[in-house]
């Protein structure tokens, strides 16, 4: 059994909120740089050039990469031998978000109620997904999510007979419909299987994967490659103004499902695909 | 074609801009996004005056991050325009000349752009740090309580935008992909 004071979690979340909104991970930087090389449309290349310059300014001058610094989505993997002390874990996470967004000059984009829409003023609460894992460590993954792309995400409850072709059609349809609204080039997270909510969570989790990594399941890895190719034949391009680089990556996660179902969730993210992990 | 345009946008300039033009905007414009639009719309429905005179003006769909000390503004890129589609035709009919945002518009908005000789520009989404460099002055002029969603008057210098919908109703988003589709 290991005791962890929740103030450690608060401090980590605070720092992560600030870092992730000013600095993209090396895999994302690499993908954007690579996209500029490969883009054939001159306007597309110009836009990708602006995005790369934008990343440099953000990092060097501490101006957030995008003004939508997102709703804080947090995956908390807690070792089963961990005992939290010093307070409530959920409060500690939210305190980290509060401090990070306030002291880091990040935008407060959360409203307390979906209908009355009064801003909470500190970007809390976060959306927290807990899982209990082996061991006595804690892994925090933070992925602030902008809503330009979140709003274009889709969930399809397909029939098993639609099979893998149905999955492909669903993903392509969602991306084509998202178009310029989702700030292409996009990163596409796909969940296949599970239940309604599990599938959406798989898609979200897929977005936190390193964009250079393929699925370990051979047919899923093939599917990822094929989808990326198909999406980049849509012609939407950077900013949706025409070009080859519509998506930077497609990541697919699967889970067992019911004999009667084939859920498919498509969580669309923009090129500002922010994710950061830390182990405690 | 590259163009340098000064704001507020003149009728002649608005009519001369064509979908696909790459434009650098210099001068004054206003920010407003979801909550400010809703308030303006409600005010009009109640027969009240708008807090700013939008005639001949350009609105930038923007909710910036807070400015760090010594900075004019924080990160300042466009938000998705479609959420303002419900309100835009009404404002265009009242004389609004231009909108800066990102993403698709409804046919009702396109019709209102044509009817009023206006323009819809896109700025590059997700380039808020870069775009903030073009903003030389920012002051809240209405709805201060809305925080990031307040209406701000901005002084911009060479703000890079692309004409997506022009006064003839040509919509770049509808055709841009054709050339690159495989
Ligand atoms: S979709 Fe992404 S890049 Fe575009 S405005 Fe939202 S967070 Fe920024």
Give a verbal description of the structure.
The complex is a heterodimer of chains A (280) and B (182). With 280 residues, chain A is of the alpha/beta class. Chain A has eight helices and ten strands. The longest helix of chain A has 20 residues, at 42-61. Chain B is α/β, with parallel strands linked by helices and 182 residues long. Chain B has a single domain, classed as fumarase (Alpha-Beta Barrel). Helix content of chain B is 23%, strand content 27%. Chain B has six helices and seven strands. Chain B has a five-stranded mixed barrel with strand order 2-3-4-5-7. The longest helix of chain B has 12 residues, at 34-45. The model of chain B has no long low-confidence stretch (mean pLDDT 97). Chains A and B meet through helix 3 of A and helix 5 and strand 7 of B. Iron/sulfur cluster (SF4) sits between chains A (66, 68, 146, 148-149, 182-183, 270, 272) and B (77, 125-126).
Strand line-up across the major sheet of chain B: 2-3-4-5-7
CATH topology of the largest domain in chain A: 60s Ribosomal Protein L30, Chain: A
Number of strands of chain A: 10
Unreliable stretches covering 5 or more consecutive residues of chain B? none
Count of the domains of chain B: 1
How does the helix and strand content of chain B classify structurally? alpha/beta
Q: How many separate domains of chain A? A: 2
Structural class of chain A: alpha/beta
User: Largest interface, counted with CB-CB under 8 A?
Assistant: A-B, 51 and 47 residues
Q: Describe the global form of chain B.
A: globular
- The CATH class designation of chain B is Alpha Beta
Query: What is the rounded Rg of chain A?
Result: 19 Å
Strand coverage percent of chain A: 15-25%
The ligands bound in this entry are:
iron/sulfur cluster
The biggest beta sheet of chain B reads: 5 strands, mixed, barrel
Q: Which range best describes the helical content of chain B: under 10%, 10-25%, 25-40%, 40-55%, 55-70% or over 70%?
A: 10-25%
Number of helices of chain B: 6
